[in-house]
Design brief:
The chain is mainly alpha-helical. The protein contains 7 helices and 5 strands. The chain folds into 2 domains: 253 residues, Arfaptin homology (AH) domain/BAR domain (Substrate Binding Domain Of Dnak, Chain:A, Domain 2, Up-down Bundle); 60 residues, no CATH class. Strand 3 and strand 4 form a beta hairpin. Pfam families: Arfaptin.
């Protein structure tokens, strides 16, 4: 028995050191075959696949972390742009209200000035949100380019070793189907392949453990990163809302006792009959009598520009499909005209 064990160990060492061209070609052949099976999606041995179920679960978690961190980085950049745009628009609105308030000497002017100052203050405070967001984006990018990249390299090495291991299993399966224990050469060939399987499995198990440990550490690191950075952003956001709400509440208190104003928003522009037509039977569009009072107007909805158009009832009326002719008005285009000057029709 001792001689048999010594003989087997000697064979194993010799097979492990076998780096001949034929052995390398056979090994590469089965590795390529395994890679082809994986690429084409052919069914593999269910027992071999089941043995790597825990590893596949870790890989799914890793790919999820990789994908969500990339999406988070893009969302932070877009969020910063939206904050800058909103702050700019809010500041412009505040300046507009202040300028209009200076021109209006009534109480409404004072209200517009106070509201404009509050909006300008709010726009400046809103920009403070970019500081924790910039820091957050830097931390996420560092996490992606270091932690995730390092884990990705380990995953690639593990996948290469898994391909070598499964290719060696295919090789051993092929050799075992033609194995005759009575033939020494076939037994020697089988032992050589068996040694190759052991070496491939040893390397694969080591990298498999490394991948599982790194993915677990990666998930914990991401949780710590998000907890720390989001807490900082949340604190800054709460301070912003506290300052803004305090300013708006002070303005609301100062406006108590002022005469309320009613504002009406025009949501839809519709055609209404002029006062001189209301109550009468409306004639055909092409037979509407041209009025004696005409305004020089321009259209703001289309490139059409007319020097004389129908404009009864004052400036800013909507008239459907108007065209001025020598005998009357023809309706050919939908236009909304702004009156510039008033004159009699010649």
């Amino acid at each position: 028995m001792s001689g048999h064990k010594c003989y087997s160990w000697e064979l194993q060492d010799r097979f492990a050191q076998d780096k001949s061209v034929v052995n390398k070609m056979q090994q590469k052949y089965w590795e390529t075959k395994q890679a082809f099976i994986k690429a084409t999606g052919k069914k593999e041995d269910e027992h071999v696949v089941a043995s790597d179920a825990d590893l596949d679960a870790k890989l799914e978690l890793f790919h999820s972390i990789q994908r969500t961190c990339l999406d988070l980085s893009k969302a932070i950049v877009l969020y910063q742009k939206r904050i800058c745009f909103l702050s700019q628009e809010e500041n412009e609105l505040g300046k507009f209200l202040r300028s209009q308030g200076f021109q209006d000497k009534t109480r409404a002017g004072k209200m517009m000035q106070a509201t404009g100052k509050a909006l300008c203050f709010s726009s400046q405070q809103r920009l403070a949100l970019r500081n924790p967001l910039c820091r957050f984006h830097q931390e996420v990018e560092t996490f992606r380019h270091r932690a995730i990249s390092d884990t990705w390299l380990t995953v690639n090495r593990m996948e290469q070793c898994r391909t070598e291991y499964r290719g060696a299993l295919l090789w051993m399966k092929d050799v075992s189907q033609e194995l005759d224990p009575d033939l020494y050469k076939q037994m020697e060939k089988f032992r050589k392949v068996q040694t190759q399987v052991r070496l491939a499995k040893k390397n694969f198990d080591k990298l498999k453990m490394d991948v599982c440990q790194k993915v677990d550490l990666l998930g914990a690191s991401r949780c710590n990163l998000l907890s720390h950075m989001l807490a900082t952003y949340q604190t800054t956001l709460l301070h912003f809302w506290e300052k803004t709400s305090h300013t708006m509440a002070a303005i609301h208190e100062s406006f108590k006792g002022y005469q309320p104003y009613e504002f009406t928003t025009l949501k839809d522009i519709t055609y209404t009959s002029p006062p001189w037509i209301q109550g009468r039977q409306q004639p055909q569009r092409s037979q509407v009598a041209f009025p004696w009072i005409v305004y020089s107007s321009i259209c703001i909805n289309c490139p059409l520009s007319l020097s004389r158009v129908l404009a009864v009832g004052g400036a800013g009326h909507f008239y459907r499909d108007i065209r001025v002719s020598a005998t009357g008005v023809q309706f050919v285009r939908r236009c909304f005209f702004i009156t510039t000057t008033k004159k009699n029709f010649p």
